[in-house]
Amino acid sequence: MSSLSSGARHGVLFVCATPIGNLQDVTLRVLDTLRQVDLIAAEDTRVALKLLNRFGIRKPLISYHQHSSPRRTRYLLERLRAGASIALVCNAGTPGVSDPGVPLVREALKAGVQVVPVPGPSAVTAALSVSGMDGQRFLFLGFLPRNRKERQALLEQVRAVPFTLVLYESPHRLRATLHDLWTILGDRTVTLCRELTKVHEEIALTTLSALHKRFENEEPVGEFTLVIEGAVPSSPPVRDEDVDAFLHQLLAQGWSVRDAAKETARRFSIPRAVAYRRALQLQR
């Protein structure tokens, strides 16, 4: 952990990941940091207080969320410049990852203030780890736009992306989102992660069509993370002229119609009967 010495020219901003449901998932380093800082900037001080009380931590709290004014950012930056150490926390997970915190982190970096990540729980990585999907390359979409046209436009942009897609959704918007996902992306495999690390946690490998059908008749409850398979690259269509040119070359070399058709079918991944018919036509 970076030094919290008051002798430093500037203070330190610690970006702390907090549990996404189960308070026991908090890391020892986060607890140590929260005990030592001068101030905790929290998305919701009431939520942060539950974590602090659970582990007997008493520190000053100040609210800092997506609707905080630039004045609040300037105040926190002034405290950092004066040598204070501040822990930035959100309600669940990692600040800045589909959660508040970006303006303060950016301004601190621009001002030359040391910014230290204190990693821990994240719904993105937790969902990926249990999804059964390829996590080597993935695209995190956060919460999709509330506006239907904007949401559909974003999905059109990522429809052909071959990487695994990860997104968050709230229960009251889940049905509309599933409808757009199914309509635009097609019936892909999806892993439903609901209430991760909480009492009613659910993880299910299914399809977008099945999920859409399920929640037409079932009221969505809880917070959702969806992990969706990426687009499968499609092969370019086979052109007749390319097939004919290849067949003509083989026949000119003395290949039999049967053997030329077999080799052409293998080369272009087309039915052997189709290649055979085209070879006969070329011989006439």
UniProtKB/TrEMBL annotation:
Catalytic activity: cytidine(1402) in 16S rRNA + S-adenosyl-L-methionine = 2'-O-methylcytidine(1402) in 16S rRNA + S-adenosyl-L-homocysteine + H(+)
GO CC field: cytoplasm
Family matches, as InterPro entries: 4pyrrol_Mease, 4pyrrol_Methylase_sf, 4pyrrole_Mease_sub1, 4pyrrole_Mease_sub2, rRNA_ssu_MeTfrase_I, RsmI_HTH
CDD domains, A to Z: RsmI
EC number: 2.1.1.198
Domain Tetrapyrrole methylase: 15-211
Entry's localization field: Cytoplasm
Primary localization: cytoplasm
Keywords carried by this UniProt record: Cytoplasm, Methyltransferase, rRNA processing, S-adenosyl-L-methionine, Transferase
Enzyme's top EC category: transferase
Annotated ranges, domain RsmI HTH: 240-283
GO MF annotation list: rRNA (cytosine-2'-O-)-methyltransferase activity
Domain of life, source organism: Bacteria
Pfam families attached to this UniProt entry: RsmI_C (PF23016), TP_methylase (PF00590)
HAMAP family in UniProt: 16SrRNA_methyltr_I (MF_01877)
NCBIfam families membership: 16S rRNA (cytidine(1402)-2'-O)-methyltransferase (TIGR00096)
Chain's role: Catalyzes the 2'-O-methylation of the ribose of cytidine 1402 (C1402) in 16S rRNA.
Family: Belongs to the methyltransferase superfamily. RsmI family.
Name of the molecule in the record: Ribosomal RNA small subunit methyltransferase I
Organism per entry: Candidatus Fervidibacter japonicus
UniProt lineage: Bacteria, Candidatus Fervidibacterota, Candidatus Fervidibacter
